[in-house]
Every structure is written in structure tokens, then in C-alpha cells.
Amino acid sequence: MIQSYRFTSTALGAFLAAWPVMAQQTSDVVVPEPQTEVTQDFPGISDAARAALDAKAAGESVEAESWMVAAANPLAVEAGARVLREGGTAADAMVAVQAVLGLVEPQSSGLGGGAFLVWHDAATGEITTLDGRETAPLAADPRYFLDAEGEPLDFQTAVVSGRSVGTPGTPRLMEEAHRRWGQANWRSLFDDAIGLAEDGFTVSARLADSVAGAAETLAVFPATADYFLPGGAPLAAGDRLVNPDYADTLRQIAARGVAAFYTGEIAADIVAATRTDEHPGLLSLTDLARYEVIERPAICYEYRAHDVCGMGPPSSGAVAIAQILGKLEHFDLPSMDPQAPETRRLMGDATRLAFADRGRYLADSDFVPVPVKGLTDRDYLAARAELLRGDDALPEVAPGEPAWDHAALWGDDLREERPATSHISIVDAAGNVLSMTTTIESGFGARIFTRGLLLNNELTDFSFRTHAGGWPIANRVEPGKRPRSSMSPTIVLRDGEPVLSIGSPGGATIIGFTAQAIIAHLDWGMDVQEAVSMPHLVNSFGTYQIEAGTWAEDLVDPLSEMGFQTNVTALTSGLHAISIGESLRGGADPRREGIALGE
Predict the structure, then answer these.
(1) Domain ranges of the chain
(2) Cα 500 to Cα 521: distance, rounded to the nearest angstrom
(3) Catalytic residues
(4) Cα–Cα distances in Å, from 298 out to 132, 449, 496, 578, 597?
(5) Sign (positive or negative) of CA dihedral 378, 384, 385, 386
(6) CATH number for the 4-295+415-598 domain, one of 3.30.1490.100, 3.30.70.120, 3.30.70.260, 3.60.20.40?
(7) Could you report the per-residue pLDDT of 497-555, keeping only the tens digit for each?
(8) By three-state DSSP, how is residue 324 classified?
(9) pTM of the predicted model, to two decimals?
């Protein structure tokens, strides 16, 4: 039986009107644009998954005792749930979830992209972070995105080309996580995805809307157009879609490990696909064969008796969130109204200051020195917090001078990332906790489709320019380098025990989305569903982005009077979170089609 989950503008208005009564709970449940009716059909999902969709629509978290998985599509969540139900670990379940997401949500993540993973080990108590970010080709140089006259390429022109494709890291990360922490049979982890690819799955409303919105660029490459625009028309919600090439790719990986992806015929096809007529890429078989996942030191910041832990460079997420929290801890945020202009003034300018530092100092630390300790030093952040003591918006922000001998050597890079990413949170029966954010960068990546999957456009996260103000830019392109990211997979601990796994898609706004949800949970006492449903207000680069169709619009005039530029817009995060206490509680962002599911 097909069951529809229909969220209408009428239902949204009633839901938001109940905000004061519902324990500060709020949500813009319209996907993907405000005031648009969307139907979510997921034939064949379990009664438990249907109940989880209903709970999300009602603004209620899902509770479980033993294990839980939260991700962006019910079909992917059910694949992970099967693995956990059969005794697999969070690492095993992640492999199954990611394999299905690459099929049913290909615009956001997949084998052709990269990811960051944060893991809390129940047996040892250790936090481990793994870097599966894409790398620039060895043949690239800092002028990679400059034209013959030395000027930056048009951004969209660079995206829709082989030049934007970095060496994918997600398959290697999946295998590395399974090698370290998995216990299920590797081959079995791909069964759900292979079955859905061969038998077909129902195209969701979100995928159909994404295809329609990107139809012009999806038509550029024939293989991409054949899959997403069959007969010249975009896929429609309710269509049955099969992907035998993806099933074949997964079968080879299941049988031979990810060596089947990084060498041989699959690797050759990936390289060939990047040799586009306009702005061909320089990715090579050598780049693929030599790719490695890197274990990085976790970045942990103590905030109100909690340790907030995440991924260090080349991710800017954990450092920026630490900076935001490190400034705000000097204010009595728990007693402040989440809807008050003063609260949002502090949060907005704290984020702006963090992004000023991010733009100058954060990049791949294997290639440039990054002052992580200086940027997260409590005294440094206390001094930066003093800038927030006023009544009005900061007229301008500039990078600070953290403790580091070479801080003045870098030029500022304020490049924004595009919001097409996905997040997975999992807790297994043994108490292991996983938080992983996974991406192909902008929607549908480079729009290059081969072997049943899309290739990323992650290299456009590098600065196109090599210098600013006479100084080299830390996030410039270099051979083998990993571009800076805002992905912020996070695990929060108290007294050494995990209490929250959280993260979001959203490009540069990931940092603001994740920081707000952490504050909502820790400072304002919201449960995870309330925290991820809360309307967004984000100020990364000077303009306060305010989520349309929510109570946040009431703050446009007060924030403008404080001196902020404002922009009312759709802010479609994809937060997924699991809180860990006497029981597990899961929250899935109502702006997308995911769920939390557990037993």
C-alpha cells in the first residue's frame, strides 16, 4: 500500500501558530520551498518508518532503547536499521545507508563524492575523526580555475565540467570505517541498495523537484540527461526508476572491496568521464589509485560542561562552531529568548566573526599551517566576545590575530559552498556513536554521470584566485590538496559519555544550522526534534538569512534596525540528530524527507 505524507501551507501555518505552546518547538515543514505543497510517497517502507514520518510531521522525536539511525531518506534508514537489527555496528549500518542514499538521493551524496566521519568508541571512550574529503589532481596547480587572461572562470561554468571533479573519497571511507569498527559481512551491506537499483524505486518529491530545478544543466551531458531527463522530460514524483549500472558498480565493490572502484574499469570510466569538451579535468588513474583516508585529530571544545567534538581541517566546521560557542558562553544564553532580536544579534555577529577567521586561516593543514589552537584558545575567544558587547550589529568584521607566528601571511578567501549534502547519525546496540556528513558539493555535483553515479564538483570549494591583498590564499588549489569544507559532523559528550550526534547539509550555512541546533538542545532544553525543526537565522558573510514562512520573519525589522542587512529565503537544512540518555531520541529535519528509526 502506498501511503502519502502531505505537508501543506495550511498545515504549516497551524503548526507554526502552535509554537509558544509546543515547548519552543517550530518547523518549516515545506520541502523544498516555503508555501509549496509536497507529497512524500515511499511504497514498501515498514509501519515503523511510516510512524516515524508521522512523528516528524507532528514535531515529535522518535524514541528507542537499543539502537537508532537518522538519515535523509526512509529507504536508506531502513537499510541501516536492518543491519543494526541483525547485530551490526554503526559503521556497518553507515555503509548500507550511504549505498542507498547514493541511489535515492543522488543529488546530495554518493560514491562519487567525499565525507567526514566522527566516531565515539563505546569500548575505549575515544573520539576518532576520519577525513574522506576529495583531493585535487596531482596535475593541478594554483591557476587551475583561471582562464587564459588570469581571471577566475565563471563559477557555474567551472562546476558543470570535468575540471570541478576531485578524487572521490566516500568509498574508501566506507571501507576504512568497516575495517576499523565493522563486524557484519561486507558483501551483505550492499544488498538493499543493489535490490533497489535492480528492481527500481519510487522517485520522491524532493528528487523530482531537484531534477526539475537543475534540468538545464543536467541536459549538458548525454548520460546524465538519459537518466534524469528520460525522453527529454524531468523525472516526476512517483516514477519508477531503475539503475542497473549502479547495481553492477555495487556488486563489484561488494565482491572485491573498493579496489574495484579505485582501479580497473570503473576507475577508467570515471577518468574518461571527466575529460569533458569544455574545461576538461585532470583527474588520472594515479589520483584514484593513491587516494587515502586520513585520521585527523578531533577538535573538542568545552561548552557549558559539555565537550563538543568534530572534524578539524580541511573541515572548518568544528573550529568555527567552537569559535561561535566560545564567544557565546560569555553571555547568559540559557536565560535568553530564542526569538528575541538581542539573542539573534549575538548569534549572528558571533558567526560573522568566526567566518572572518575561517576565510583567512582555515584550509588543508597538510599543505598550509593552520592555527587551530590559537583560533580555539579561550582567551582569544573571550577577547573576540568583547566585540559583541553593544546594542547594534557590528558595522564590519575582520579576522583576528590568534596566537601564531605566521598569521599575517594569508589573504582572505570568502568563497561560499553550495548546499547539496547529506548527514547520517547512528547509535548501535553496543553504544558506539557515528556522525557523518557526506556530499558531492552542489546539487548533482559536476552533472557528470557514469557507472550509475554522479561525480562531485568539490574542487570548486577551492579559492579560484591565488592571492588576495598581495598575500597567497590558504585555500588555493594545489596538487593532491583537499578543499576547505563547512561540513560539521559533531558528537557532544558530558563527563566523557556521548549525549548527542548531530550534523547537517547546507553548504556554508551548515555551521550556523548545526551551532543553532546544539545551542537549542544544550541551552534552551529543546529535544532533538524541536532543535532540528527550529526556524533558521544564519549570518555568515554579512547578510542575515532568515527562513521564510516561519516566525523568524518577525525579526526582519528589529534586526534591520540594529544595522543588519536581511534576506528572507528558503533555508532547507537537513539536520539529523540522536540524543543519548536513559533512552535514545531521534530527530529528522522536516525540511527534507528523512526519518529517525530505532528499537
Answers:
(1) 4-295+415-598
(2) 9
(3) 421
(4) 14, 34, 14, 20, 28
(5) positive
(6) 3.60.20.40
(7) 999 999 999 999 999 999 999 999 999 999 999 999 999 999 999 999 999 999 999 99
(8) helix
(9) 0.92
